[in-house]
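Example 3.2
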Amino acid sequence: MIYITINDLHFSYPVGEEVIRGITLSFGEEPTAIIGQNGAGKTTFVKLLKGLLQPSGGEITVCGHNTKNTTAAELAKHIGLVFQNPNDQIFKNKVLDEIMYGPRNIGQTEMEARENALLALEWVGLAEKADANPYDLSLSERKMVTIASIIAMNTKIVIFDEPTIAQDYGGKQKIKSIIRRLQEKGTLVLTIIHDMDFVAEAFERVIVFQQGKVLLDGHKKEVYAKAALLKQAYLEQPHVTQLCNELGWNDIYLTVEEFLSNPSIVP
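Structure, written as tokens:
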């Protein structure tokens, strides 16, 4: 099933050169990471998907709705965004109220919103924090609150903006688990991110943006194999891939587990 189609997308801010230059893409259920250096157009692209900006040219269709003819409020029923900085997203004084706000805002009943919020809190491991003030929590926990607030909306598309910021190893593992669970229920998960190792571990498709265009698009192993093009976009391969290359392995390994599963590796 295709959730998003993008045809010859262009965008320019009122003053300045074109930021998005002729992008054509489609997205199904495959978890996808969009990577690229700062200024490549990733954040602008996400704002266009959410209807927060309107294209200068071309079209975007989200779950059958053309963003030119649909308000951002209407699109919120279909596409949710977890902000990079949770402090920019949280505004309630109680965790449960914060998580229920989005579901209520898109039309869920009080009972539905509460049930979905409590379930989302279980997903992120904060069930016991429902009555806490979000600003009494750590930055990592506040990030989980914002993730829960989007999960509770039950949108068909979830976008994570730099999900691993402020997360330790345990937090990253939890986010990976959330991404898997969302995928299992048929949700399209997108991320814009600079953490190449996390992309290798949690996503399947990788799209590289450079100067407002798509430089690479494919399965993560195919994309990460193109070291020269990645360097052109000021990106690096995952650390495990780089280490294996230094050790003389020609195959592309993206994670430690993948490397160790090779039957030719002698303990």
